[in-house]
Design brief:
The strands form two sheets. A seven-stranded mixed beta barrel has the order 1-2-3-4-9-10-12. The chain has a four-stranded antiparallel sheet with strand order 6-7-8-11, with no helix packed on it. It is 9% helix and 53% strand. By secondary structure, the chain is mostly beta strands. The protein is globular. β6 (111-118) and β7 form a beta hairpin. It has a single domain (8-230), classed as Acetoacetate decarboxylase-like (Beta Barrel). The protein contains three helices and 13 strands.
Length: 233
C-alpha cells in the first residue's frame, strides 16, 4: 500500500472541469447510492487534469487524472458548489491510486489523461491502456486574471459508511471557455452510461491554467442526520 500521508498538496496543475446533462438519466440513479439524492436533471461532471512536474506536488510526483461522477443535493458546500459522488477515477500514478483508494475513491487501473493546447483550442483525452475513451474539445481564451476559490466536497464509501471529503482549491481561469464537443468513444465501457444528451447541454465549466488543491483536506463520516436532511427525510 502507498505510504503517502494526508493531506497532499498540488499546485499549478492544468485542469478542465465541467458538468453536463446525460443522455440516460436513469444511469445516474443506478450509479449513486440510495442514501444520496441526485439533481432532477441528473447532472454529472468530469475533471481531466495533468500535473506535469514532480515539484508541483508534495509527494505525489507528476501524474495525470480523470474522474467522473454525479452531483448530489442537500450536502452543498455553498450556494454554488454541490457535493459530488465519484463513479469513475483513473490516475496514471499507482501510488496516487492506492492513496485515493484508502478514502473510498473508486479507482480504475491503466488510465492516463492528455491535455493539448493548439491555438485557441484545447483537446482533453482520457485513455485506458493507451486507448482513448473520452475526448473533450474546447475553445479557450488566454490565461486571465480571475481566480476561483472554493471547497469541493466529494462523498465516498468505505465499507458500509459514507464519508465526506473536503478539498480546498484555488484555480486561475482562462478568460473564455466553450466546450464544443464531449465524445464517449467506447460504447462497450460502463462509463458510456454518462454520455451527454444531444445536443450537448453544458451546465458549467472552467479551464484552469493553474490549479492548486489539497487532497484531501478533511475526511469524516456523514451522520444519519445529515443524510436524512439531504434527501428531505
Amino acid at each position: 500500500m502507498s505510504d503517502l500521508l494526508p493531506p497532499q498538496l498540488v499546485i499549478d496543475s492544468q485542469m478542465l472541469y465541467f458538468g453536463w446533462v446525460p443522455k440516460d438519466p436513469q444511469a445516474v440513479d443506478r450509479l449513486i447510492p440510495a442514501e444520496l439524492k441526485p439533481f432532477d436533471d441528473r447532472r454529472v461532471f468530469i475533471n481531466q487534469y495533468v500535473v506535469d512536474r514532480e515539484e508541483q506536488s508534495s509527494h505525489l510526483g507528476a501524474y495525470s487524472l480523470t474522474y467522473l461522477g454525479a452531483d448530489v443535493t442537500g450536502l452543498d458546500v455553498s450556494d454554488y458548489v454541490p457535493a459530488r459522488w465519484w463513479t469513475h477515477y483513473w490516475s496514471s500514478s499507482e501510488s496516487m491510486s492506492e492513496y485515493a483508494a484508502q478514502s473510498g475513491v473508486p479507482i480504475r487501473p491503466n488510465g492516463s489523461t492528455v491535455l493539448e493546447v493548439a491555438g485557441d483550442n484545447l483537446f482533453a483525452t482520457t485513455l485506458i491502456a493507451n486507448k482513448p475513451i473520452i475526448r473533450t474539445t474546447v475553445e479557450i481564451g488566454r490565461e486571465g486574471n480571475d481566480y476561483i476559490r472554493s471547497h469541493l466536497r466529494y462523498i465516498t464509501r468505505v465499507g458500509p459508511t459514507l464519508f465526506s471529503g473536503r478539498y480546498p482549491a484555488i484555480g486561475r481561469c482562462a478568460e473564455r471557455v466553450r466546450i464544443t464537443k464531449l465524445e464517449f468513444l467506447d460504447k462497450s465501457h460502463d462509463v458510456y452510461a454518462l454520455a451527454p444528451k444531444d445536443p450537448l447541454e453544458v451546465i458549467w465549466g472552467f479551464y484552469f491554467t493553474k490549479a492548486a488543491f489539497c487532497y484531501p483536506g478533511g475526511f469524516e463520516p456523514l451522520t444519519d442526520n445529515e443524510l436524512r436532511s439531504a434527501v428531505g427525510g
